[in-house]
């Protein structure tokens, strides 16, 4: 007999009123027979729960009865910060704690406030995943979350862009950005670093505690890290003439490009075209970005990027000047 499940049934009855056995069983992920046994156990313990028969029947508490057992555990209180992110909470191993916390909050709220909270939940939804890209669920995530909570070091095998290595890390926090999980940790350097969780090939928890830096602020660190990354990423500033349609297409390249274009946009010429200055990545990516704008954009500067773009266009022209049938025959030979 699970004491936690008995408490959950009690809180659900207090929050929802009448509930039938099937709904309780689905909510708590047990059989209907188990629910009947739990109800009998509650009755034997003096809880005034009774059953109404019929299609609209179910279990409910005696009018006026209210349990005071609504205090949150540490895990449940921690999970409240992720109430809008149930999948993320489950990935971190806090799914059960979140469900329990929600039941306790529902039970503690007056009925009119409870209805208002339920309305908000049905009308506003937060989806952190990017388009065409589901949220990652790395297998190491629950163990990392546990290490972050307990402030214990972990030994990981990590594959970076250049090599694979074994590292002893002090995990300071986890960040979910656009469906991708990142670990912020202290490694061999004195300052925190960012690790892609999906690149952790293996993880070994340890019992070695570490002293968390007193002045470490996870949101502030992440904000600074994103700004520095964008500064390193955008290494080229290009001057581009665009039509009205081309200006709208710039927004698909990145938020930084869109903001820069809006800030530097010149008055339109007689054809309605305007000039903008936008940040782009290295030459290869910059050429692809400009080509994606098609005939609605003309690269003006820098000259080195114009040369690279001209060469790419010449290569494309040579490729598409060939007869596809002739190309196929030459490959077969």
Automatic annotation (TrEMBL):
Species annotation: Povalibacter uvarum
Protein name, entry field: Putative DNA-binding transcriptional regulator YafY
Molecular function GO terms recorded: DNA binding; DNA-binding transcription factor activity
Listed Gene3D superfamilies: Winged helix-like DNA-binding domain superfamily/Winged helix DNA-binding domain (1.10.10.10)
Keywords, sorted A to Z: DNA-binding, Transcription, Transcription regulation
InterPro entries in alphabetical order: CBASS_pafABC_assoc_protein, DeoR_HTH, HTH_11, WCX_dom, WH-like_DNA-bd_sf, WH_DNA-bd_sf, WYL_dom
Positions of the HTH deoR-type domain: 2-57
């Amino acid at each position: 007999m699970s004491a936690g499940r008995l408490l959950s049934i009690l809180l659900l009855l207090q929050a929802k009123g009448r509930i039938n056995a099937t709904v309780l069983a689905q909510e708590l992920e047990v059989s209907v027979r188990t629910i009947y046994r739990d109800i009998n156990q509650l009755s034997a313990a003096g809880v005034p729960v009774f059953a109404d028969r019929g299609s609209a029947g179910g279990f409910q508490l005696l009018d006026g009865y209210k349990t005071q057992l609504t205090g949150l555990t540490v895990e449940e209180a921690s999970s409240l910060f992720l109430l809008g992110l149930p999948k993320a909470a489950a990935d971190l191993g806090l799914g059960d704690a979140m469900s329990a916390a929600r039941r306790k909050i529902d039970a503690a709220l007056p009925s009119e406030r409870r209805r208002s909270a339920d309305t908000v939940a049905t009308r506003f939804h937060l989806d952190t995943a990017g388009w065409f890209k589901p949220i990652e669920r790395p297998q190491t995530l629950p163990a990392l979350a546990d290490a972050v909570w307990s402030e214990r070091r972990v030994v990981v095998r990590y594959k970076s862009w250049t090599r694979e290595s074994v590292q002893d890390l002090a995990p300071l926090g986890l960040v979910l950005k656009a469906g991708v999980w990142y670990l912020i940790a202290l490694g061999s350097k004195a300052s925190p670093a960012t690790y892609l969780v999906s690149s952790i090939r293996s993880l070994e928890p340890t019992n070695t505690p570490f002293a968390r830096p007193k002045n470490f602020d996870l949101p502030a660190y992440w904000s600074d890290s994103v700004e520095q990354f964008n500064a390193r990423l955008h290494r080229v500033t290009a001057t581009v003439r665009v039509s009205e349609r081309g200006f709208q297409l710039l927004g698909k390249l990145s938020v930084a490009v869109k903001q820069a274009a809006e800030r530097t946009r010149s008055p339109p010429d007689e054809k309605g075209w305007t000039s903008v200055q936008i940040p782009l990545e290295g030459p290869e990516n910059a050429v692809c970005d400009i080509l994606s704008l098609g005939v609605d954009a003309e690269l003006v500067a820098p000259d080195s990027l114009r040369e690279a773009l001209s060469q790419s266009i010449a290569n494309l022209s040579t490729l598409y000047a060939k007869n596809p049938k002739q190309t196929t025959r030459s490959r077969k030979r």
